[in-house]
Amino acid sequence: MTSRKKVLLKVIILGDSGVGKTSLMNQYVNKKFSASYKATIGADFLTKEVLVDDRLVTMQLWDTAGQERFQSLGVAFYRGADCCVLVYDVNNAKSFDMLDSWRDEFLIQASPNFPESFPFVVLGNKIDVEESKRAISQKRAMAFCQSKGNIPYFETSAKEAINVEQAFEVIARNALAQEESEDFSDDFPGTININLDNDQSGCAC
User: Fold this and answer.
1) Backbone angles phi, psi at 147, to 5 degrees
2) How many CB atoms lie within 10 A of CB 145?
3) pTM (2 d.p.)
């Protein structure tokens, strides 16, 4: 059996402070949830080995501090990312409104080769909070995702472990596809990747 090179996938998780980025990572990697809130200072990362279509890959999940003063962490933090996860709190309208600027910030800092086809995934977190407190409807979030080129969308709860595994499965698959397309364009400089898969079924829930 031929041994394939080990694949390391770099995933950046962005969003306002307090939306649950660290909790989502901890739930996915360690199957743990902590109710005590501690703001991330600068950046932190966790790794997890996962199987994607029978390929063993190592996911490196980078969690950023949502505070503005840490937003300019520098190009090195973003560079080389294979997927970007945008997280907001479904009970906090401002955190949803900020998704656009987080997305723009990522594309400027990471400057991927093909920004129009770079994989993003949107997570609407904290759906365990009672329905009456909800500020952003699923319909509105899905409309945003469709307007940005059918970004996959999941509603999650880090606390109750709802949809966390499913969301990161899609994140891993999209990151691996991005990594392989980058490898292909490195092997054939000057080639243009054309994404023919345009009839994706929109936002996944």
Assistant:
1) -70, -20
2) 21
3) 0.82
